[in-house]
Amino acid sequence: MTDIMADAVYEMPVQSYVTYNFEKSAQELARIVWPNYHDQHYLKGCYWSPDGTCLLTIVRGAGMHVCELPTDLYSGDVVMSSRPITPLNPAVSVPEQGLIYDACWYPGMNSTIPATCCWLSSGHEGPVHLWDAFTGNLRCTYRGYNSVDEIDPALSVSFSADGQNIFCGSKKSVKIFHTSRPGREYVKYDVSHPAACIVASHAQPGVVAIGSWKNTIELVSQSDGTFRNLCKLQGHKGGITTMTFSLDGFKLFSGARKDKEVICWDLRVPGRPLFCVGREVNTNQKIAIDLSRCGRYLVSGGTDGKVLIWDVSQNVTPQENMQVSMNLM
Q1: Which end of the chain is more exposed for a tag (fewer CB within 10 A), N or C?
Q2: pTM
Q3: Nearest-angstrom CA–CA distance, 157 and 291
Q4: What is the DSSP string of 247-288?
């Protein structure tokens, strides 16, 4: 199973997608809503599958759900403005077994190869789980331990760009597992502050960014099974909660809690932000950012219920391209 997963990274399908113009008004294409009971169900995160056919969602109190997207969103050439809003229904659901901290797809995920269809999740006081996206069954676990031989829960999880390693960020270290070796065998890289988020560069394999609760980002290079420090980036006012690399790997975008700026770092000249864009973040929540598949548009949520979109194709401070208010209820 693992050999198939590793090989699939280099045989990713070339999927065609409808071209969206974010310079014009946004169009709602699909929707799923969870009822807000007394225990407050709310969405904690959405993750596109690497092949673009599925959406992984994490709902507080309701677990994790994989929703299959309407095929016309990635098989046609255009989307008509008269297109009806498609209701999304979970194809696979995994009940919540405690607070979920983080999740990520296997980077070589291809719906035509079932062995590659899986995702990782980390949670409170538990190991990292690898879940089957077809059945919702647990495939295996990866267990990190602290100095007194207790399970050290991962605050953040990420695959390496080639999918052969798993990075688990905890309060005092990042533990590096080999994907094909579940259990408690790992290499440990010590960090000064809790590793709140981890992201690997696909354009520059081996380069990994580690964001901490102490407002800093550590850029490292994977070599000889562990990490080697490259540099540290400082500029945020709060703990780092979200990061993404540009498609060429030369830039890193980052956001933090209680910090109203998204910073773009030019990694060719590290240490000084290339530009900053503003958003509303006045809580400790993880307010995510992401790049469009073409790499041109940066998208961010906000605690004010708005989604902001910027054109970041030029190395200058971008103007806000679009603002969308989220009123789904």
Answers
A1: C
A2: 0.89
A3: 19
A4: TTSSEEEEEETT--EEEEEETTSTTSEEEEEE----SSS---
